[in-house]
Each structure stands twice: as structure tokens, then as C-alpha cells.
């Protein structure tokens, strides 16, 4: 394991953390502007890969939509690649600064800014291409649904969408660092109090984390492969089985995505690829279980990207059954869901 | 300088970052619950210092308010210290889980939960003590105003407030790591584009960052000392002068607080004290300036903690004049304010 620990239990802040960061929205109201977009722009793998795909896909004279233009970086890349018109849609107030940036780059006549939610936008002409960095934690997310919805309304016949396809991957992992962080609430008494009530909430949450492929207890499986224009990206439902290759502690699952942007350009958030802002996703097991080589890990995985309850765009569901070598029935069954991480009165 | 850099320019995410974190609210809606309160509880300096102050201040039989009880940690500390009644006020839905935690600790009969904004709360009896971890970036913040407002309405004569007093400190600093991060927008062309428009926004923001006292170009000055029960904590206005002790690049100012909680217990977020979640605040200079030893740095500092514009609870203002040794007039004047970091159309 190369990953660094944030602390397995209740641990103090460390000066080894990154030295400087934008302050949260609570103090200056600018989180949505500079903190978030600086975070995105600082990821050169993400941004350069998207620009490379745009350069491969945009044809001179194209009419393009950039959905969620943010700092305008992809809209400007489309202009530079020869787009005749770019409709840059952005609901956030950053659009006012982005407009000035685009003008400073001499692209003010090509880019048309639309300060609205995309669902409320009607474009004046059919478009050749919709571009959007619409990737959620493990690929699909509510933003991706907005892209698909706009494509149905505005894309001309034969028009394209960037990204084109998203694939999801999962592997069972041994990672005591990650597990100890999640499972700290019912160990000991933090500050002398019983905080075990929080454990159910913590176990049913998903986390972003760095993983090393060496933490895998079995090879990864592809959970889904979705073409944005043809398939339903609002949810993923998949049952999959893993055969444990080495004995160890099963602490949960590592999830990530691989996306085909267009023109043969791919972006991958796997532990083996260069680091991106997405890191990987950790789906903790309700409690660590020792598994022998040969154990079958049956995973019933669900990801819903559209809102089912207010202020909660979607949820993860992961139900696990462990069948030891030679056994007929599971030794352990865990049914976990991020819906269970909502605090309840009892 | 011991601090680690997040990257001076547009830099890629690093696997050296903390390995695991709760996912943002956008995905599961639980940011306000577990991510934020885990972050607070993980700061053992903060939490243990508050608990130590509570143990020094709470007298058996006291009626206490815990304003913004969150995970309930301070409310439980008040119970353990002998409080007869604790009114735990919390507007966030975490209160539903916290109630179960408090019951699990056998304190369900002592703690009365109130699921409201404190401004809408009328207590059934006068209280002896109001406890609140109400500290903002540099001490005062909009939460502190809520505490003071509740104290005026609900504290019995002779009643107390915890924290009792907050002091603000500032020092001029040399820190090219911090300055390079802030001043990256008009250097080079990120991804081949002119992004200099963002520089004005970035220069007028404040940042949280780690500092080393060795980065100071002059000794710190105390900007304010405010007793919460007697003084106006809604704003700080102060003009102060520093005399540069060693030549170097002036990159901005480092700010922090020291707070007197009660019973002689103090908490300090200075670069010389143990790390806390607050780190320090970086107020960047609009551009770095070389200063000779003996240069006078005149700072006109303002901090407003209550909202003047929507979604923006307060703002920082820092106006700097640099007067070289022997000169009669300033060589440089910079007038900066976080109000200028709001994106404008032109």
C-alpha cells in the first residue's frame, strides 16, 4: 500500500496537508467560483484529456454546446478547434467572469453564454456536438442525465456527444487504513462517550479514496458499459461474482470509471492510472471479514443517479454475500445503501 | 518553511493527499452530517480544549445552552460536568442522530433538543451558561453573532458565555509557495489560454493555509481583543503598522486567533501552536513586493461578520501601504477586499 492515511481513528489535523486552499462558501460565497473551478483546472490529466478529445472530435464549422461551462476552458478549446458557434450553458454566477475571460481570448463573437439551468434552455438551432465534463464519482451522475436530456432535445441527427461512453469497474479490496477510518465509531469511546450510533451512518456512506492495485483481493470486474446516446444512464444495476485470489481481510470494494470521450481518447480513474480529482470510490463492508483464497464474493450493486429524495441526487446500494470455498451457503451477508446513511430519530 | 505546497501553478492531484474522505453533499446529501462533524471531531486539540474549558466552567446544577450542538459532543461534556439541563440547539438534520447518541450515553433526560435556528428559539427558563464552538476563520464569524444575540435574550444576570473573549493577530509574511498559488492566473497561459481576468478575483480572496513563524517579516500585532458579552463582535476595524525586520519579498499577511474559553483555558490557532482545523488565514498582497529591513507596512484591516449581501455572511478588507526606510510617501498602495472577488460582467 502506497496510500497515505488520514488517520485511522480520531486524529488531529496535520501540517503535512496541502498548504493552501480557498476558503469555504460560508465565509466569502466564492466556493462555487474559484475554489471549485481552481480544483478542476489544477487537474491537468482531466483537463488536457478533455481538450485532446475536443481537438479530435470538433470539426471546423461545428455548432457546439458546452454544458456546465464553468471557467470556460472547454468552450475555448472548442473555439480553438474550429467551432463556428459554442453555446456555453452555466447556472452559476461564475459565468459573469468567464464571459470576460472568453472575450480576453478573442472568442467573444463565437461563444454565446446562457446563464440558466440546461433543463430551461431552448437553443435557436440544432447542434452538432454536446461537450460536457459531466462525470460523477464513479462515472454516471445527475449531470450526465442533463446532458442526455439536452441531447434528445437539441442534437441534430447524426450529432455527437462528448463523452460517448462510460464504463464502471469494481474490485474487492483489503485496506485496513480505509476500513479503520470508517469503522472507528464503535471502537473505544471517543472523548469518553459512546458514539456507536454513528457507525451505521458511516458504514452506509461511500468515500473517495486512493487505492493501490495491490490491495485487490480479486481481479476487477466491469459492472457496466453505457453509451450516453443509446443507454439509460439514470441507473446501474448489476450482480457480479469475484473469486478471492489470496487470503486476507475483505474491507470493501474499490470502484472507478473509464470513459471514452471521443476520437479514441479515453480517461481512466483507476488506481493504475495517473491521479485525477475523482480518486477512487470506497464502498466499505459493514464489518471486515477474513476471506480465504477461493471464497466467492457475490456483489449486487446499484447506482441511481437521479434524485429520489430532496437534496440527494442519487444513491449507491451494495449488497454482499460471502461464500467460503466448498460451502453451499453464505457465511456473511451485508445489505448496505447510502439511503441508510440518512440520520434517523430511531 | 516547513509547509508543503499544493502546487504553485496548475498542478495535478497527488496520491500523497489524505487517503480517504467523505463524499460531497452533491452525491449523498450527507456532507453536513458526517463529513463536517467527522472533520470537527478529528481535531482533538479543538475538541479536548473545549471539553477542558467546559469542565472548568460548568457548575453542578447549571442550566446550559449548547448552540449548534452538531454531534452533541459539547452537550455531553456539559452533562458529564454536572449540568442539570442542557438545551441543545441545532438547525441541521444531524440532530436526529445526535439525539440517539445522547440517549445511548444515558443523558436523554438531561439534554433537550431544539431543531431550529437559534434566532427562532425562545427558552423556557434563563440559562447560566451558553456554550458554542462559534469560531470563524480568524475568530469572529456570523455564528458568534448568533451566540451573542441568544445571550442577550436568554442569559440570566451574572450568566456566562464560553468562549469569553477572542483576540486577532496578524503578521506580514514572505511565502512564495502561497503567493505563487494565488498569483498563477496571469503567469503563462494555462492550457494555452489567457486567464488573467481571474487574477483580480483570486487576489481579493482570503485563503486558509499553514504558515511557519519563520515566514514572518515583522513581529505579529494584536488587531483586536473582544469580550463576547461586552464588545461588538460584528466587525473589526483596525489600523496597524509593522516595521520590517529583515529584507525579503512581502507576499501578504498571516492571520489567526487566540480565544479565552473560560476557566483559564485558551485555544490558539497561531503557526506556533498545535495544528487545528482552522490552520491560519492568508491575506495575499495584490502582487509581491521586495521590502528592505526598516520598511513600514501600514495595514488597514477590516472584518465584517454579518451578512451584507445574500449568501455571503461577511467579508475581509485589507488595505496596505509600504513606506521604504527614509521615504515620506508610500512606494506601494494596495486596496483589497473579498467583496472584489465576486465575479462581475465587466
TrEMBL record, chains A, B:
CDD domains: AdoMet_MTases. This is Protein arginine N-methyltransferase domain-containing protein. PANTHER family: PROTEIN ARGININE N-METHYLTRANSFERASE, PROTEIN ARGININE N-METHYLTRANSFERASE 7. Keywords: Methyltransferase, S-adenosyl-L-methionine, Transferase. InterPro entries: Arg_MeTrfase (IPR025799), PRMT_dom (IPR055135), SAM-dependent_MTases_sf (IPR029063). Pfam families: PrmA (PF06325), PRMT_C (PF22528). Residues 165-301 form the Protein arginine N-methyltransferase domain. One of its GO terms (biological process) is methylation. It comes from Melittangium boletus DSM 14713. GO terms for molecular function: histone methyltransferase activity; protein-arginine N-methyltransferase activity.
